[in-house]
Amino acid sequence: MSTISSFLNKTLLVIAITAISVVAYYKYDQQSNTWVDINDSKKKKRKNGISSAIPDIPETELPPTTPGLYICGATDKNTYLFPRRVELFDGMKLRGIQFDNDRKNSFGHQAIVIDSKGNLLRWSIESNMLTPVLERQNVTQIRLSNGKIYALNKKNKLLIIPNVLSTTSLEDNNQMQTYEFLDLSILNKSNEKIIQIDSGKDHLIVLTNKNKVYSASTNTNPNWNKSKNYFGQLGLPDFSENEDDKDFFKPDKLFEIELLNKTIKTDKKGNQKLITRKIQKISCGNNHTLVRDSNDDVFVFGCNLNGQLGLDSKYPFVPYPLKLEKNEVTSKSIDVNCIGDSSFITTTSDKTTDKNVKVENYFAFGNGQYGELGIGNYTSYQNILSPVNVLNKNANELNDPIQNWSVNGIDNVICTLHSGKVLVWGQNINGQLATGKKIKLSIPSTIPGLLMPGIKNNSKSVYKSELNLLPHQCIETSKDISCIFWKA
Ligand SMILES: *[C@@H]1O[C@H](CO)[C@@H](O)[C@H](O)[C@H]1NC(C)=O
Ligand SMILES: *[C@@H]1O[C@H](CO)[C@@H](O)[C@H](O)[C@H]1NC(C)=O
Ligand SMILES: *[C@@H]1O[C@H](CO)[C@@H](O)[C@H](O)[C@H]1NC(C)=O
Ligand SMILES: *[C@@H]1O[C@H](CO)[C@@H](O)[C@H](O)[C@H]1NC(C)=O
Ligand SMILES: *[C@@H]1O[C@H](CO)[C@@H](O)[C@H](O)[C@H]1NC(C)=O
Ligand SMILES: *[C@@H]1O[C@H](CO)[C@@H](O)[C@H](O)[C@H]1NC(C)=O
Ligand SMILES: *[C@@H]1O[C@H](CO)[C@@H](O)[C@H](O)[C@H]1NC(C)=O
Ligand SMILES: *[C@@H]1O[C@H](CO)[C@@H](O)[C@H](O)[C@H]1NC(C)=O
Ligand SMILES: CC(=O)N[C@H]1CO[C@H](CO)[C@@H](O)[C@@H]1O
């Protein structure tokens, strides 16, 4: 508490007020549109008439059983309401793909692809070009932040590749990029290895095999000193005391989030002792982060202006990890996932369903302006953990829990269930949810199956069909575009 009040100096208050009014403005904007949103059924009928043209897929195109990539959503040239195969990727399997949500450049929509060997390729979508940017590094995970690629390789080194997306012209013959290694000497003490990375607008969070968490600012703008941790997104509370420490917000320098590494435990005799906490999973939104430890506790830090930390409005920003109070809802948290300004927690309990599987429940909080919380309404502030009924029903009544989350969208989510069934919700203004329409969804919904080459399908049968991914297929989303690819 006292840290919070000292943290809230005048500057921060001004920002808080400004940011709150921005949220309020959006809310107003949302409300002025409510009549459109509330009556989804009317809109559907109207829209159906317009958007029901089902594209004919040429007979010569490879079928959706052959590895490749399908794209859906809007580029500057085309809008694909149904996933369409991109020939460039025919036969390819990928380790992963991340679209650039930032687009602070003139190159159109771009994504970074990890091919089956761990090489990085830059996909310029409007130009239909796939060019190598990093080879022979055996990359396993990537994150984009502030125009830079952060790449983790099989040797557990963290590479930073600057400028690819923002400054290297497509006409440049040599697209191969220079890279640097992020200084990991802080991990040397106990020989730690990085196992997961995630990033937000200005922060990078790293989880190691010793279950410790580190953070770094990704913002290189020299005029940004103080604002680099405005929301407390770095989880490093003593920043006001360290203002003079030149290194403290040096971009791409890791600091341990020390407050996450220990906990006080009281034994049966009432003795208190310090034990080390083991963090298992990290997930970043734009300006906030959730982590889960081996004790099934959830810790939150960063921006809470939309309620995305699950805390009430007297905590606009939280600059250090705060444990979410355990209650019936959060008693055992087994997963955390964040998108832009929203969060999801998966919980379990010792109870079993009548099919004798563990009860699994999903809760959402934060910004749900475009339906991205999946709780059935459009609200930009929700700090109470709210059950996502459709997901809970699938998990507990149909024995079909979530297998994979795609959380690289800002205000849209795509999930793959155990069975392969795909559920989507949130912003859909670009058709990025692959529903065949552009209507946003506040309830997780199935999407049509992939269109078959050479088959004329009527809209009724297409909209009635449901996409079920094959075992090696993955679906990934982003701000404007989603894609289906084959996992290497
Ligand atoms: C939406 O439209 C349907 C069908 O036209 C109607 O039955 C329903 O009452 C409407 N709901 C609202 C909230 O206006
Ligand atoms: C990449 O890493 C894997 C697993 O560590 C290893 O088996 C493989 O040989 C590596 N590939 C290259 C090209 O270094
Ligand atoms: C960290 O350890 C690795 C391997 O043990 C070594 O190669 C590297 O030089 C060390 N880095 C620093 C800064 O001590
Ligand atoms: C940021 O830091 C640099 C060097 O430490 C300093 O010259 C500059 O004035 C600072 N900018 C702001 C906005 O504080
Ligand atoms: C935990 O953080 C403290 C600083 O608060 C640090 O001195 C200590 O080394 C850390 N503990 C472990 C086990 O790394
Ligand atoms: C958080 O980050 C996003 C950009 O990723 C920005 O648009 C937003 O205004 C930031 N602030 C708040 C209060 O959400
Ligand atoms: C949205 O739904 C949640 C969960 O049912 C509820 O707690 C919240 O009050 C609703 N918000 C609005 C603005 O209706
Ligand atoms: C297209 O039509 C075929 C044959 O009628 C059917 O098997 C398939 O499921 C349809 N595809 C979709 C996406 O509706
Ligand atoms: C694309 C992706 O992340 N797929 C993962 C889905 O979940 C399974 C099991 O947890 C992983 O093995 C896949 O890699």
From TrEMBL:
Entry protein name: Protein FMP25, mitochondrial
UniProt record, GO biological process: mitochondrial respiratory chain complex III assembly
GO-annotated cellular components: mitochondrial inner membrane
Gene: TBLA0C00340
Chain segments annotated as coiled-coil in the UniProt record: none
Keywords attached to this entry: Membrane, Transmembrane, Transmembrane helix
SUPFAM superfamilies tied to this protein: RCC1/BLIP-II (SSF50985)
Membrane-traversing stretches: 7-26
Keyword check for DNA-binding: no
